[in-house]
Amino acid sequence: MEQPVPFFVYVELFKYSYRVNIRLEKHNPLEATVVIDLDKNDYQSKVDSQLKKIQKSANIRGFRAGKAPMGMIQKMYGKSVLAEEIQNMASDALNQYIEDEKLDILGYPIGSTHIESDLDIDNKEEFSFAFDLGLAPEFDLAVSSNDSLDLFAVTVTDKEVSEDIDYARKRHAKMEEADTSDAESIVYADVTELDEQNNILDGGVSTKPVSFVPSMIEDATLQAAFIGIQRGFVTTADVRTLFNNNESVITNALGLPKEGIQDLSAVFTIIVTDIKARIVPELNEEYFKEALPGEEAPKTEEEYRAKVKSNLEHYYQNEANLWLDHEIGHLLMQKHTFELPDAFLKRWLLATKEDTYNAENIDEKYELEKDALKRRLIIDKIAEENKLQAEQEEVILEAKIYYAGMYRQYGMNINPDDEFIAQTVQKRLGEKEFLSQMADRVIYRKAYDKVREIITIANKSVSVEDYFQHVNAHKEKHGE
Q: Nearest 10 degrees: CA dihedral of 341, 342, 345, 347?
């Protein structure tokens, strides 16, 4: 253990100053204890001042208001005032010490388990407060031009354009009654569970209405059985196969709990009651306006295909940039393997967030906190070394982008410069927590941009298929 570091700090409270004795004892590079010693000379004048204030306003039976003797005031309030004043002095001295010594701490100081505090106000006049600190690790940025990542340029072909157009037409399709089903029809049917003798199962699923699309049935034989059929068509099948063994779909379709799926019979009677066909819209100017709301509608199919291709290219460009950020995040974590004061941080989480953490879940949940904290320390290091700051205009713009993205998730395509978003952001500018959150987003963005400048970025052209193959392989590798 390192030798204690003596330190004297002047703490100014109101018009009084105190010379407080503080020492720091390091237990290891990441954990330390600050000990604050107070004697009567440190606190007595402040205690006396507070008692005089109480005396002037005290209304005690048998005495005129403000005229109770100081001895009585001392007896009634002395210990509570003393306890409050020394606690305040210790807290202020601790905060000042951390600031003066530029200690980079994690979390907040908590009562020490290494050194016992001495706060016997009944029998002593000298007191000792001991606070444990978790110290941030010292580390150097480890990314350089030797680190290389790919920025994908995804090639959009006529195949992707046609698939996107077909998908959009299906979304805008109108449903009409049909005499005969095709692969994209919606087939409505009643299903009834049978026993081993193919009789209606007593107490089983009976005449339950369901619906499905033949093309979505993965079993090729069963899929083919529902193409080209008419109302009244009857067959038997396992409903688990009909719904591709998807537990959520089966429970929703049959109204059963998941636990009941395994007990279902392997054979159901399926009677088709109705068929509706998807009537996809024609590729004409009227449909182009419907498919591209808020944009200048193309006049011809050729112009429409060009617009779809441009939109897809823009979409994949954004996706590729977001994916590069994702991989930068992994690179930063891989290149910086410093340790944290785990034991202290677990104690701090248990002490300050009792609603979230307990003895049973702290180890598991701490791992998530630990990764987030490590990432934050790395970002702060990048920001510090490159003097990155979040200017007010940048914070406001980030807030507008944040709200535009949030509304987009709810199907509202609102431009960040829209007056509605501007008013929404304006209302929240007085909230410190919100401003801090937006400032953090700005700093993260700037830090990632700085990493892009430091490392080597290789532009790599890939097909849509190869892009998703890479992304999926990465997610599988990292369990994402």
A: -120
